[in-house]
């Protein structure tokens, strides 16, 4: 069972913080850009933590999430779908 940060000992807090990776590291790991990572987070699809004003991620949570969705290929497919829908919306706006 996962404890909240406030319930952790100082030693456990330091260990948890040392296991976090940056937004750029997650982008590199998922082979995508930060804008799409924020889209995934806004859709409640990607687990992330705001720590001191900076987004951080646990790679084990990212790996678990990837397993749930079908891997990095699913991320790429979702991004392609998102880009397609965005382009269609922009084209529809320019027609009006």
Structure description:
This protein has one domain. β2 and β3 form a beta hairpin. The protein is elongated, with a radius of gyration of 16 Å. It has five helices and three strands. The protein has 96 residues and is mostly helical. The termini are far apart.
Largest sheet: 3 strands, antiparallel
SS summary, helix count? 5
What's the gyration radius in Å? 16 Å
Percent in helix: 55-70%
Distance between the termini: 53 Å
Average per-residue pLDDT, rounded, comes to: 83
> What form results from the Cα inertia axes?
elongated
Poorly predicted regions: none
Quaternary state, please?
A: single chain
Number of domains: 1
Query: Could you give the order of strands across the largest sheet?
Result: 1-3-2
Number of E strands: 3
Key phrases:
96 residues, 11% strand, mainly alpha, 64% helix, three-stranded antiparallel β-sheet
Task: Reconstruct the topology from this structure.
Blueprint: H1 10-18, E1 20-22, H2 23-30, H3 34-42, E2 49-51, E3 54-58, H4 59-69, H5 72-95
Antiparallel strand pairs: 1-3, 2-3
Short account of what is shown:
By secondary structure, the protein is mainly α. The chain is built from five helices and three strands, in the order H-E-H-H-E-E-H-H. It has one domain.
């Amino acid at each position: 069972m996962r404890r909240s940060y406030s319930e952790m000992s100082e030693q456990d807090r330091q260990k948890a913080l040392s296991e976090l990776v940056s937004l750029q590291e997650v982008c590199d790991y998922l082979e995508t850009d930060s804008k799409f990572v924020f889209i995934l987070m806004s859709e409640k699809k990607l687990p992330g933590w705001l720590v001191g004003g900076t987004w951080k991620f646990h790679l084990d949570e990212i790996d678990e999430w990837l397993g749930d969705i079908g891997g990095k290929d699913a991320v790429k497919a979702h991004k392609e779908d998102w880009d397609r829908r965005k382009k269609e919306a922009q084209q529809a706006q320019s027609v009006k």
